[in-house]
């Protein structure tokens, strides 16, 4: 965690134990001799004593193998002893890397290939140097293992629909595991989920059949509603014979508007009923 250019240090593991022993008499003697050597060879050794770290960097100083001052140096200019001190620079900027595609088996026994991306940063330079040999590489390997472990407990439907929840679970697991390394996992995202070709065709066929079934149900409901409306309309027309004549006139008006060269003469149904009664 970086606040206004200063690293907030949280002691992790046994870093403090390494600083409790001190340098000892022989160690301080070597430090004194190193200082005398710097003074005797001044100003030639000044180029080996001055170190500069940038705003986004911190330097962890080891003096005779022990971390001095229990905190990193920087940003800016500082001095080291060329014979007894060694400097390790740590980058505090957010680092992103891709998780290679992982072949895994879901909870419902479906083989999928999943890849993702992880964003992390170093909040404790001392822990990232003293507690792990290579913080970046270790985080990358741990992210691959965490991806397989988390997705192995999910069904295929959950994997396809709940990516945000899976990303959050992976972030919590990675953050907890890398806390001892001085690393803060900021974000984890699932990029792509690749399914086998046979499974893709089966899912496409299932989705198509489901859509066809819904379309048939909707069409049947439409036919049923239309038949009920026609039944109600026929009952209304049967109660008033003049309503049928008005319907004929409306149909004639509609046809004449589309094809004005065609003339249709409606034949009243009452005339046909008169002839049928005579027979």
TrEMBL record:
GO cellular component: plasma membrane
Location of the protein in the cell: Membrane
Keyword 4Fe-4S: no
Residues in Band domain copies: 48-207
Residue spans crossing the bilayer: 26-53
Keyword line: Membrane, Transmembrane, Transmembrane helix
InterPro entries per UniProt: Band-7_stomatin-like (IPR043202), Band_7 (IPR001107), Band_7/SPFH_dom_sf (IPR036013), Band_7/stomatin-like_CS (IPR018080), Stomatin_HflK_fam (IPR001972)
Xref: Pfam families: Band_7
Assigned protein family: Belongs to the band 7/mec-2 family.
Protein's UniProt name: Band 7 domain-containing protein
Species in which this protein is naturally found: Channa striata
Lineage, top ranks: Eukaryota, Metazoa, Chordata, Craniata, Vertebrata
